[in-house]
Amino acid sequence: MKKNKRSFGGLGQLTIPVIALALLILFNLVRDLIFIYYLKVPNYVSFFSIELTKNNMENMVLAGNLISIINGASELAILAMGMTLVTAACGGQDISVGAAAAIAGSVFVKVLKSSSSITGVTVAIAFVCACIVAMLFSSFNGTLVAIFKIQPMIATLILYTCGRSIAYWINGGATPTVDSPLITAIGGFIPGIPVPTPVLIVIAVALLFKLIFKFTSLELFTQSVGINGSAARLNGINSTFIKLLSFIILGVCVAFSGSIGVSRLGLINHETLLIDIEMDTILAVAIGGNSLGGGKFKIGGSIIGAYVIQMLTITLYAMKVSSTDVKAYKAIVIILLVVIGSPVVKAKFEKLMSNIRRSGQSISMKGAQ
Amino acid sequence: MKMMKNMRKEPLNDTQLLMSITIGIFIVMYLAAIVFLGGGFLHAQQIFDMLNDNASLIIVSCALTIVMIGGGIDISVGAVTSLVVMSCVLYLNSGGNIIVSILLAIGIGLGFGLVHGFLISYLEIQPFIVTLAGMFFARGMTTILSVNPQKVDHEAFAKLRDMKIEIPFLGYTAKNGNFVPARMELGVVVALVCLIFIFVLLKYIRLGRNFYAMGGNQQSALMLGINVKRTRFLSYILSGLLSGISGYVFMMHTGAGNATNAAGMEMNAIASSIIGGTLLTGGVGNVIGTFFGTLTLTTIKKIVVSSGLNDPWWQSITTGGMLCFFIMLQSVVLGKRAKKKNS
Q: ipTM surpassing 0.85, yes or no?
C-alpha cells in the first residue's frame, strides 16, 4: 500500500480522475500554445478564457469554455453522486436514471402548468412532487434489488424500458413549455449572480452529502454492506434498508437533475431529456476510481469523473468534431483511461519502476566504488 | 429410453426449470392470443413473420446469453450490428462483392470481440465499461461513415436479399382464393444454424461447459484447472463474431444502412435472455430459453398491436410489465428452491 502511494503521489483512489483531468488540461494548454504562438491564428480565443458578458436578460454573467463545462455537467454530477451510493451498496448500477429523470421532469412541468401563476411556492411544490414521484419509482427499483435480491441492472431494466413512455403519458403526449423568469433563473442565471444556478445547486447537493456523511454513519454502513452484505447483517446493520435507502437517495438526485434539465430548456421533451445519461453516469462513477462491484467509494471521485466527461466533450466540440461523432473519440479516451487504471497495468508499471530504481541504485553504487 | 429414465430420476436444475417456465408461458400466451384475437395468429406465417423480423435479435441474444452465462455483460452488440450494416452497405455500394462483404462483417465483429476480450480478461477491466466504450465507438463510427440513410444498390445482393424459402404445406388460402405459401428469409436459417451451433457448444463441448463453470464460481473453476482468462476471452470473441453475423442478417432483412439501426437492441437482447432464464450473475442459462424469450417478447408486441393499442408507448409499458413479471417470478422460484436445498 505504501509503495502504491509513493509511485502515484498519494492520491489513492482519486489518482485516475485527477490524472485524467490534468491530461485534458495539458492537452488544451498545448493546443492553445500551438495556435497562438506557432500558427499565430488571429482572434484565437483560448480554451481557458473566461469573460464577463451581458446576456440577453441584461445580467452580468461569466462565459467561456470552462464555465460551460462546469455548467453542462451539473445534471451528470448530481446523478453521479447518487449512483456512487447505489453502486457501493448494491454492487450494481441503476440504468433507469435517464428515464426516471424524464418522469420527474414531466411531473415538475405538470404541477407548474396546473397552477395559475408561477411563484416561488409553486416551484417548491412542483419540485417536492417531482421528488416524491422519483423516490417512489426508485423505491420500486430498490425493493426489487433489496428485498427480491435481483441484480440492480436487471431490476432497473424494467423502468429503463417503460420509463419514457410513462413520462409521455403524464403530459398526455404533449411537450409543454414553461415560460417564466423564475424557471429561466433556475436553468440559467439568477440576476446579480454571475455563476450559473445549476452549479450552485450541485454545490448545495454536494454539501448535503457531506453533511449526511458527517453526522450519520451512512458512509461506513454503505461500504460494509457493499463489501460483504451478510457479514454486515451479522454485525447488526440492516443491509436491506441500506440498499433501499441508497436507491431513495438516488431518487432525490434524479428529481434534482430532472428539474434542472427541464428548467434549462423551459420545456419537457420526454424523448430527449437527459437521453443516454445513464451510461455517462456509470462512466463517471468508474472514472472516479470507484469499483463497480461495490464496496469502498468516494463521492468526490465521481464528481471529478463527471467533469472529466464533460470537459472531454467540450474539448472535442472546440476541435470542431460534430456532435454525433463525439462518441467515437470519447470511447478511445475512455479505453485509454481505464487501461491506465487497470490493476494489471498498474502492477506492471510498478514493477518497471522498481526495476529502474534498483538498476539506478546499482549504477550509483558502482559509481561510489 | 435409457436417457429418459435418467432424466426422470434427476430433478430439474435451475437452467431447465427457468427455461420450461418460459416455454410454458410462451405457449399459454400464444394460445390466448389465438383464442381472443384469432385470425392472424392461427397462420403459421405469423410465426415466420416474427422470425423474419427478429432473426438478428435472436443471434444477438444468443451472443449475450453466452457472455452472461460466463458472468459478464456485453452491451456493445446493438451498436456493432449497426456499424456492420453501415460499413457493408457502403462497401457493396462502392461495387464490392458479396463474399468479401460477408468477410468484412465477420471481421468487424471479430475485431470488437478481440479488443473487448483482451481488455476484460487480460487487463481485468470491468466488462460493463469496456463494452460501453465499444458501444460508443461503434455508434460514433457509424455516424462518421454516414449520417444519411444508405440503400443497397447491388444486383447480386438484391438476389440474396429476396431469396426466400417457401414452405407450401404451412401456407394458407388468402381471402381472394390465392394460395400463399409460408415464407422464410435466409436470415432465419442463419439464425437457426447459429442457435443450434451454440446449443451444441454449450451442452456437449468442453468450452461451453467451461463457460458455465466460470460463471458459476470463478474461483472453483480456476481450481478445477480451467484457464479462466482464456475462456472469458473466447466468450467475448464469440459474442463479437455473432454480432458481426447479426449485422449481416440485419442488412439482408432491411437492405439499407441507417445510423439509428438496431437502436436499443442490446437492451432487447438482455431482456430476451433474462426472460429465457439466463441469470446476470452467471452460470445459469440456455439458448433454447433465449430463443423462446425473444419469441415471447415479440408476441407481446404483436398482441398489443393487434388488440388495437396502437400508441407506441403501450408496447414499451407492456414489455416493461412483462419483464417485471418474469424477473419477480424467477426471483421467487429460485428463492424457494434455495430454501428447500438448505433445509
A: no
